[in-house]
Write a structure and sequence with these properties.
Strand content: 25-35%
Bound molecules: NADP nicotinamide-adenine-dinucleotide phosphate, 3-(2-carboxyethyl)benzene-1,2-dicarboxylic acid
Radius of gyration: 21 Å
Helix content: 25-40%
Structural class: alpha/beta
Number of strands: 14
Number of helices: 9
Oligomer: single chain
Distance between the termini: 4 Å
Largest sheet: 8 strands, mixed
Length: 354
C-alpha cells in the first residue's frame, strides 16, 4: 500500500483487473531519462499516469510513450501530488532538493544520482545482488541506484563472492561518454568530425579533448588523490556486497559512445578455477558469458550497447598470486548502469512492497 494513501488505480482490461501506477520521470529529456521512458515501455511497466519533468529549457517539448505524446513539464515543488513512483535522473543537486519533497508527498523515489547512495538508512540496490534492501524504502521514501560502473561489476562478482569470498578487487574502467549525458555525446561526435576535417576541436564538457584520447579523470578529484568516481566504486561496493572487501579503482573516460568496459582483478579467500568461474557465471542472473578466445569472442562495448545483460569474458587465472582471477566486464551504462536497474527496482517495489 502506498504510504501516502495515494491508491493505485485499478482498471479492467479484457476481463482482468490490472493495477497501474502514477509515475514521474525527473530529467525526462536527458540521456538517462530518455532510456527510462523506453524501458518502462519495453518492459510493459504498469504505468497509469505518466509525468515527464525537466527544466524550463524543455518547456514546449513533448516526448512519446506507447505511441502517445506527453508534454514535458517544469519540475516544481508541487509536481508530486498523486505521483506514486518517481524515477530521478536530473543530477545530484536536483535530487537533494526534490527527492525529499517528493517522498513527503507520498511518492517513492528511485534516485539515479550520487546524492543519497551513502546515506546509511537509504538502500543502495542492484536487484541481482541485494533486492531484500528495497524493504528499507520505508525509512526515507528513497531508494538509491548505484553508479553505473559499480552496478555491472556487482552483477558479475556477486556469484563469485558467494562461492569463494572475494578479499580484494582491483578495477580499471573504460567509460563511455554517454555516462556524462547528452552534451558529452555531442562533444565526442563534434570533436571527431572536426579533427578528421583538420579543424581545431572545441573542448567544453571535459577538461581535455576526449576524441582520440583517454582521460584518467571522471568527476572531480578528492583529498586522497583519487577521483569521486573511483571512490564511488570503492564505497558503493562495500555497501552493496560486503564492507570487508578491499577495493581500489582507476576510472578512465574513453572515446566510446555507449557501454562501459572494465578490467577487474579479484583475489579470493578460497581457490576457484577459470572453469569454476565460468560455470557460476553461465547461470548467474543478468550475466551473459562471452568467452571464446580461440574464436576471438569476448565482450565488446559495441555489442553490449542497447542490451540488458552484463557481458563477461577474458576470464583468466591471475598467475601472480595464489587465488586470483581476471575478468573483462562490459554493459550498457544507460541501461543496466542506470535506467534498467532503476526500473527493475520499481518492479520489485510494486510487486512486493507497495
Ligand atoms: P543529461 O543528458 O545532461 O540530462 C539531464 C537531465 O536533467 C535533463 O532532462 C535536464 O533537463 C534535467 N535537468 C537539469 N537541470 C534541471 C533542473 N534545474 N530542473 C529540472 N530538470 C533539470 O544527463 P544524464 O546523463 O541523463 O544524467 C542525469 C543525471 O543522472 C546525472 O547527473 C547523474 O546524477 C545521473 N546518472 C546516473 C547514472 C548511474 O550510473 N546511475 C548514470 C548516468 C547519469 P533539460 O533537458 O530541460 O535541461
Ligand atoms: C553524475 O559515467 C559517469 O560519469 C557516471 C555517471 C554519473 C554520475 C553517477 O551516477 O555517479 C554522471 C554524472 C553522477 C553522479 O554523481 O550522480
Amino acid at each position: 500500500m502506498p504510504r501516502s494513501g495515494a491508491l493505485p488505480f485499478y482498471f479492467v482490461r479484457k476481463g482482468f483487473v490490472m493495477n497501474t501506477w502514477s509515475v514521474a520521470v525527473v530529467g525526462a529529456t536527458g540521456a538517462v531519462g530518455n532510456e527510462m521512458i523506453r524501458i518502462l515501455e519495453e518492459r510493459n511497466f504498469p504505468v497509469g499516469k505518466l509525468k515527464l519533468l525537466a527544466s524550463e529549457r524543455s518547456l514546449g517539448k513533448s516526448l512519446e510513450f506507447r505511441g502517445k505524446s506527453y508534454p514535458v513539464e517544469v519540475l516544481k515543488e508541487d509536481s508530486f501530488g498523486g505521483v506514486q513512483i518517481g524515477l530521478f535522473s536530473a543530477g545530484g543537486s536536483i535530487s537533494e532538493k526534490f527527492a525529499p519533497i517528493a517522498a513527503q508527498a507520498g511518492c517513492v523515489v528511485v534516485d539515479n544520482t550520487s546524492a543519497f547512495r551513502m546515506v546509511p538508512e537509504i538502500p543502495l540496490v542492484v536487484p541481482e545482488v541485494n533486492p531484500e534492501a528495497i524493504a528499507q524504502y520505508k525509512n526515507r521514501g528513497i531508494i538509491a541506484n548505484p553508479n553505473c560502473s559499480t552496478i555491472q561489476m556487482m552483477v558479475a562478482l556477486k556469484p563469485i563472492h558467494d562461492a569463494v569470498r572475494i578479499k580484494r578487487i582491483v578495477v580499471s574502467t573504460y567509460q563511455a561518454v554517454s555516462g556524462t549525458g547528452k552534451k558529452a555525446i555531442e562533444e565526442l561526435e563534434q570533436q571527431t568530425r572536426a579533427l578528421l576535417a583538420c579543424q581545431e576541436p572545441t573542448v567544453k564538457v571535459y577538461p581535455h579533448q576526449i576524441a582520440f584520447n583517454c582521460l584518467p579523470q571522471i568527476d572531480v578529484f578528492v583529498e586522497n588523490g583519487y577521483t569521486k568516481e573511483e571512490m564511488k566504486m570503492v564505497n558503493e561496493t562495500k555497501k552493496i556486497m560486503d564492507p570487508s572487501i578491499a577495493v581500489t579503482a582507476t576510472t578512465v573516460r574513453v572515446p566510446v559512445f555507449y557501454s562501459h568496459s572494465e578490467s577487474v582483478n579479484i583475489e579470493t579467500e578460497r581457490k576457484i578455477t577459470v572453469a569454476g568461474v565460468k560455470e557460476l557465471l553461465a547461470k548467474a542472473p543478468g550475466v551473459k558469458l562471452v568467452d571464446d578466445p580461440a574464436n576471438r569472442q569476448y565482450p565488446l562495448a559495441i555489442h553490449a550497447a542497447g542490451k540488458d545483460e552484463t557481458f563477461v569474458g577474458r576470464i583468466r587465472e591471475d598467475e601472480s598470486i595464489a587465488n586470483g582471477i581476471n575478468l573483462w566486464v562490459v554493459s550498457d551504462n544507460l541501461r543496466k548502469g542506470a535506467a534498467l536497474n532503476a526500473v527493475q527496482i520499481a518492479e520489485i517495489l510494486i510487486q512486493k512492497y507497495l
